[in-house]
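Progress report, Aim 2. The chain analyzed during this reporting quarter is listed below.
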Amino acid sequence: MFQPSTGSARSGSEPPLGSRVLPSLLCGLLLAGGCTWAIADKPMEGAWTPAKNEPWLRQIPDDRSDEVLFFLAFSGGGTRAAAFAYGALQELATTEIEIGGKRRRLVDEVDIISSVSGGSFPAAYYGLYGDRIFRDFETDFLRRDVEGELIARLFWPPNWFRLASGSYGRSDLAAAYYDEILFDGATFRDFLRPTAPALVLNATDLATGSRFGFTELYFDLLCADLKEYPVSRAVAASSAVPVLLSPITLRNYTPECAYQAPAWLEQALHNPDDPRRRAEARDRLSYEDPEKRRYVHLVDGGIADNLGLRGAFQLVSLQDDAQETFRYIGHPHPRLILFILVNAETHREPTWVSSAASPTLVELVDRVSTDEILRFNFETIDLVSTAFQGWAADLSSRRKPVDFEFVEVSFEAVRDAKERQALNEIGTNFSLSDEDVDRLIGAARTVLRRSDRFQAALATLGGGHADATTRDAASRTRRSQ
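Predicted structure tokens for the chain:
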């Protein structure tokens, strides 16, 4: 099932990213300006009701065990991130556990996937099609010259007039292409298939710099209908790197549906003792003023959170009641809270630091959109892991303890130095060689399988590869940290 495709999307001797992107970038800037005014969200049908304030995650299917609350987070990083996340999904699909008296694949216990940028492609594809991802995703996306095909469409004469119209931007063109090759007209209604995990595709609100999640909560704030919104446009927003791509725009229909913010959001807004919660609530409630926020312009989710972690964190932290939140999402007292972060960030020194010449435009965009963001990733990981550890402790009792495992799948965990360096040299563009795709998929599977914390989680649930020695080592690691 998991054999890679034999065909190559392109040769490994393509010219550098800058020499291919810069001409199309200049063309796009001249024709389309920096903005897009295409609107695809529709107003909510009928009046808003207070029942909508119940957490949107109640849609999680009942076939999952309530013994494990399982979060997946996929980071940004172009096709590199998509391939790395795909490899982790493969490993989860071949890992079995015994839960509720049944043997199940661990991937079937995933409750929530939160993603940004390149990680949103496998997240959305898996959310729509399930196991079909292991048959088609490599051919349809990972081994495809997505970047080259998008550039070719920029130079297709009919698109010149569309881009010059002022109502159609480069991200609109990208969304149409993603819909053609991956999503086939799917909307968020299609995520409601019986066995799908809940999806949080994350973008960044350009006006506030804050996270915008494609969830019922955010769309209710706009009095907009999430279920009819195209998946392709959400993925395009999540991966809309500023300058290279234009924003994806939503219209704010407030107050057409008579929306009322939930009490916990209002309470967070007026909480003087927690400035983080207050700032998050202020950003969300700003959409209630349609005169000031008539439109919402969305760009790459990596600007607000390049790891995709804050969606799950804010789900609990804003409500300030972990027990109530876990009860709402069908896990009132899990035996294990498992959080796996698939982090495709790279660590490499820029070559231009040894030269007096200024960085090129492409190097500057790459540095600002990726490397500088990485400085904040450590703080985000520490914030989220510490918070979930505390919430697990709050849920625990002497008779029913709740374990928590935070597993990070990253290039830093690759043991072979040469292989680790090769992974760090892979760029964030949307066109990779077959060799790089194979390397990324294999690395993700190996790192996840060898993780002490992952093995500890399997031991807690009963399954996988953990033996007594591995469980003891994992236990010692947890205590030391």
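Confidence is low (pLDDT under 50) at residues 1-37, 466-481. Strands lie at 68-74, 96-99, 102-105, 112-116, 198-205, 211-213, 248-251, 295-300, 336-343, 403-410. These observations will guide the mutagenesis work planned for the next reporting period.
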